[in-house]
Amino acid sequence: METRARYALIGLFMLAVIAASFAFVYWLENTGGFLDRASYRIQFSSPVPGLLVGSAVNFNGIRVGEVTELALDPADPRSVVATIAVEKNIPIRSDTEVNVDVQGLTGGALIALRGGSSSAPPLESDNGSLPTLVAAPSAGQDWTQAARDAFQRVDNVLAENSEALHSAITNIDTFAQALARNSDKVDSIVAGIERMTGGSTPKSQLPTYDLTAVKDFPPLPKVPDWQLVVPEPTALMAVNTDKMQTQPAQGETVAIPNAQWADNLPVMLQEKVVQSFENAGYAQAVSRPRDGLAAGSQLLIDVRRFAISTSGAPTADIEFVAKLMSQDGKIVAAKTFTATAPADSAEAPAAAAALNQAFAKSVIELVPWTAAAVGAAPVPPVSTSPPAGAVPPADAMPPEPTPPT
């Protein structure tokens, strides 16, 4: 009997310890342990699905308490009143925002508090009741119901405008049938637009035309002793292109379809002008800036016109201004070069041949004019004064005067 009594006492003691442990954990979880708690009342004007007694209360994402009571407002059946217990040091103010969030995709609901302004007064009780926060009407919104409401509104809009939608769909069907009946005409219109914009043939397959450097120059009387650099010519945007162009009227340019130059026109002109100088015997005197030649002068070319004029009979029309700049940056000579050549037609082959002929005429004048201008250009004087402190040579010093006898 004594042994059985001892086992009974041990069993009762263990049951008491287990019950006390559960009670402690429950108290710690639901009342916050040893921390002081403050209770608040939250009033919702919309349903709060998923919110339960014991649900968490977060402040700026940090758990600070739990829901201790949920009840309906007897005065307003649409309202729900929740009582929460949170730590006393939580700065709940009069403008603190209240919302209902969900923990994860399948988690339970919780009350989310968001801190207000630091200048707002702390939330205080009124008439002895708990301090009350009023949640926004959308705080407890059920997103599933919100989606249903949105679809219902869309359905209402469609129902109210069913006749207009039916008419629009009928018109689209009529337009599609008209396009189907005139598909061949639509294809021809699109093809015409492509031809007009030069897009009917891929650029890589367009015929490419080039200018020819002039070769027929008289022999030079002597080897030049000057150096000349030919930079890339300047031109307006309408001319700075690889499109071969016609000029129906003054100030108007139209690209010739299915044709292009071998490069942008200024780049091609620079190359052909340098080659023409080389063919004339100035190979050691003329170069491009990228060649690194330390030149005394530069030949600056500004292209004004380079197109086929179609206002009358097709004619190649070229105009550019050449300026010779000395080593000290001064313009020492300038001249405007113009040249024309008749063209059999405004088509690409005939236009390229006529422009090449006009270019040759202008270069035949440009090369000798440049050579003469460079030869006549003044050379910066070289200082012959001795450096400070230097003694001039004896033969440069004036003779000493002879003393009188």
Question: What would you say this structure looks like, in words?
Answer:
The protein has 405 residues and is α/β, with parallel strands linked by helices. It folds into three domains: 35-138; 148-197; 208-376, Rossmann fold (3-Layer(aba) Sandwich). It is 32% helix and 26% strand. The protein has six helices and 17 strands. The strands form three sheets. Strands 9, 10, 11, 12, 14, 15, 16 and 17 form an eight-stranded mixed sheet that branches. The protein has a seven-stranded mixed sheet with strand order 5-6-2-3-4-1-7, with no helix packed on it. The chain has a two-stranded parallel sheet with strand order 8-13. It is elongated. The N and C termini lie far apart (168 Å).
Summarize this, please?
With 405 residues, this protein is α/β, with parallel strands linked by helices. It has helices at 2-31, 143-160, 162-181, 183-197, 265-282, 348-376; strands spanning 37-44, 56-59, 62-73, 76-87, 97-102, 109-114, 132-134, 208-209, 228-229, 234-235, 245-249, 252-255, 260-261, 286-287, 297-309, 315-325, 331-342.
